[in-house]
């Protein structure tokens, strides 16, 4: 499966935007207009190691500031109004999904976790 197919799989799973970024940098593929700005990628990578920064300053994705709800070494979740973002770290990548009110946080997390598990199973 191509990288673009993986990103499209995120949006076809109910997310408004989706992307796959390498942990070392660079966008592998994106759909729905998701594009990390400035230091957003570096901040996400750092948040997987130490979440204190995003807990205090928010989780920034695609120029939008989300309130950090869950932050650990494998998953970052944020919320802004009725929208949310989930970032899941796999072996080599960061899978990102942005959702709106049509998808509940728990269901969004489950869907993106399943996609991330499939991606990890391929070695990435």
UniProtKB/TrEMBL annotation:
| Gene3D superfamilies xrefs | Dynein light chain 2a, cytoplasmic
GO MF annotation, one: actin monomer binding
Keywords tagged on the record:
Actin-binding, Cytoplasm, Cytoskeleton
Annotated localization: Cytoplasm, Cytoskeleton
InterPro entries, sorted: PFN (IPR048278), PFN_euk (IPR005455), PFN_sf (IPR036140)
Q: Name one GO cellular component term.
A: cell cortex
Write out the similarity annotation: Belongs to the profilin family.
Spell out the protein name for this chain: Profilin
């Amino acid at each position: 499966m191509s990288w673009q197919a993986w990103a499209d799989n995120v949006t076809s799973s109910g997310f408004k935007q989706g992307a796959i970024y390498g942990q070392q940098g660079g966008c592998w593929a994106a759909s729905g207009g998701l594009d990390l700005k400035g230091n957003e990628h570096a901040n996400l990578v750092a948040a997987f190691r130490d979440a204190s920064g995003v807990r205090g300053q928010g989780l920034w994705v695609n120029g939008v500031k989300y309130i950090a709800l869950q932050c650990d070494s494998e998953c970052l979740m944020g919320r802004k109004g009725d929208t949310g973002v989930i970032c899941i770290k796999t072996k080599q990548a960061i899978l990102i999904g942005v959702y709106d009110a049509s998808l509940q946080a728990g269901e969004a997390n489950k869907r993106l976790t399943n996609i991330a598990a499939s991606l990890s199973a391929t070695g990435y």
